[in-house]
Amino acid sequence: MKLNGWHKTGIVLSVLWILIVGVRTHDEDVKRADDFGKFSYRVCSETKPVDLPKCEAKKAEGIATFMKDSEWNVALSSLVPVPFWWLGAFLLFKAWQVQVAGIRAVAPWSTMTRKGKAFTVFCALAAVAAILMESVDVMNMYVATQVPVGLPPSAMVIKTGDNMVRATGTWTRSGLSESTALAYPLQTSIIDCNRQEGRCIESRASISSTLLDAETVIYDIESWSDKVVVMKNDTYCAEEVYTIDVNANAVNGAGKRVRKDVDMCKMRPGDEESWTYRLSDGFPVYWELRKKARPAPLRIIQSFFGN
What we know:
about 300 residues, alpha+beta, Lipocalin, 9 helices, elongated
């Protein structure tokens, strides 16, 4: 078949797509692998005694794990869409012909062979599938605007010597009303407790709509043992107590309202009298937020795939 100008343009665009998307996907894989390697190194280096060669090995292992299937990821991202782009272009061309000449002139069903009819049905189904896939992509882009970043995957508690404990994770909250089921859902925290200073300092980062916020919270240490650290954070209108369980690798808290008759405390949002906290793994919180942000059509489509 002789190639015309449109064919040559399509080939050039296809090659450019493969090169650009392939390089971009590879660079993203390298960045994610490097971030995970640095995270593994940081966790290792905060465990006493520090074994730097071991930490370097863990960093290299983390990078290797993330890059293991990078070639397949690059191939799938850059090569798989190309046939669909060509099919989409063909279908658009046929749709244009239908508009100009009419459906019977382009696809004379009564005079077509079985192969011709089968190919026409295939093209119609492919067009529907392409529209559906594009719709899913657009809806996923909308979800990404509602939940713009991920969260660290795992909550953990690390004890260093007899005087230092660090806890990391994402706060989840349970109250009486459904609207208070999560506190700062798109959020991550690092809590450093110093026995000698008698306090814990939490560094908290959160995103609300388009606002990125950083906050420092100071807790007083109530008690300290080899297994459990109890810390307290009292405000004028609420009292909260937290336990850091080193053996269970868990942080839990409970709060209650106080001075409920004072006008300032009456203005507090929410109507619950008490609530509980837990420092949880970030990824399930992130994934639950994405599921809730999905438009109804996307929920229906993804339900067929168990999501």
